[in-house]
Amino acid sequence: MARIFSIINYKGGVGKTTTTYHIGTWLALNHGKKVLLVDVDPQTNLTFLCATPERWQDFRDNTGTIASLYRAHLDDKPFNIRDIVWSKPIEKAGKPVVPGLDLVPSDVELLSIDLDLQASSTGFTRLEDAATQHITKRAILSNALQEVADEYDYILIDCPPNLYLVTQNALAVSEAYIVTALPDHLSTIGLEILYDRIKKLNNLLTYASAISGGELKGPDLGGIIFVRVRLGGTKITKAHVRKMAEIKGDYGPNVFEEYTTEGIGYGEASERALPVFLIDDANAKRVADQYRKIGDEFLARFP
Ligand SMILES: Nc1ncnc2c1ncn2[C@@H]1O[C@H](COP(=O)(O)OP(=O)(O)O)[C@@H](O)[C@H]1O
Ligand SMILES: [Mg+2]
After folding, report:
1. Is any atom of ligand 1 closer than 6 Å to the C-beta of 18?
2. CA-to-CA distance for 245 and 251, rounded, in angstroms?
3. In percent, how much of the chain has pLDDT > 90?
4. Which atom of ligand 1 is nearest to the CA of 158?
5. Ligand 1 close to Cβ of residue 53 (< 6 A)
6. Burial class (CB in 10 A: 0-12, 13-18, 19+), 293
7. Does any ligand 1 atom lie closer than 6 A to the CB of residue 47?
8. Residue 16 Cα, ligand 1 centroid: separation in angstroms?
């Protein structure tokens, strides 16, 4: 049975996608794990780290994307998520190079799906009915993933920078959520806000589950991973080191020991739709080492 995690922050550009991709590919490449990546961000970045836009377009037209799952739910049609699992999407010269890893690709259409899910709410006079609707709207991904969860060791869900219903679906099916963050002042405030918001969402989920007889409860905080840390002696870099220590004080063992520093080496990897581990170049090698350690720490924390 897969262990399921959401990688989340309501901020953009804080390494969610890069981290999801590299933990996933590392677990598959080096530890022989079966990994399913699920991209639920309409920006489709995780999908494009796995495959070129041309191959995605092809898959989307012929097979579908995560949007198909939500569209089917809105249209009250049956849907099997297996139909949109892209088997071994990461390729080099036309051959799969991360054979243990599959992907549920995303779609820009998710943008309107969140609005449609919200709009499909109906008023209720009975509390039980309202609770059931609350759960139903947040259990779409959970119900779908049950179909394939036995086939994977890990399912990693890359979330968009918001907490709307598609994100709440990701949280509801996850045992824990992993936050990626820069160790700067605004991110520190952001961590607290995110933690509180998810706690509130979890409370609502537990409450509605108790009334409706559902089983969703929401995830625990599983970890905080710092990214793009700047080390050194300047004012800004000193502030990073200080903030990291401060956040460790607040969140204790939830903070990963390993982190990434601000580095070059991601650009070529993302252009070639390959993980940095598979790029033969000095810059990529340097950053690859950081994600190896983060991947190993993830595995040690969630064996
Ligand atoms: N350690 C790092 N050093 C330099 N650039 C990074 C680092 N980690 C991520 N990036 C780059 O930052 C940008 C945003 O990262 P991304 O993972 O897409 O963030 P998010 O998913 O939170 O929006 C990407 O272009 C990515 O390649
Ligand atoms: Mg992203």
Report:
1. yes
2. 10
3. 92
4. 21
5. no
6. middle
7. no
8. 7
- Condensed to tens digits (0 to 9), the pLDDT of residues 54-112 reads 999 999 999 999 999 999 999 999 999 999 999 999 999 999 999 999 999 999 999 99
- The mean pLDDT value for 43-48 works out to 98
Q: Topology of domain 3-301, per CATH? A: Rossmann fold (3.40.50)
Ranges of each domain in the chain = 3-301
- Among residues 168, 165, 145, 164, the alpha carbon closest in space to that of 155 is found at 145
Pocket test for ligand 1, best of 8, 18, 293 (most atoms within 8 A of CB): 18
> Measured in angstroms, how far is the CA atom of residue 263 from the centroid of ligand 1?
10
The closest alpha carbon to 157, from 166, 84, 148, 165, belongs to 166
Question: Which residue type sits at 41?
Answer: D
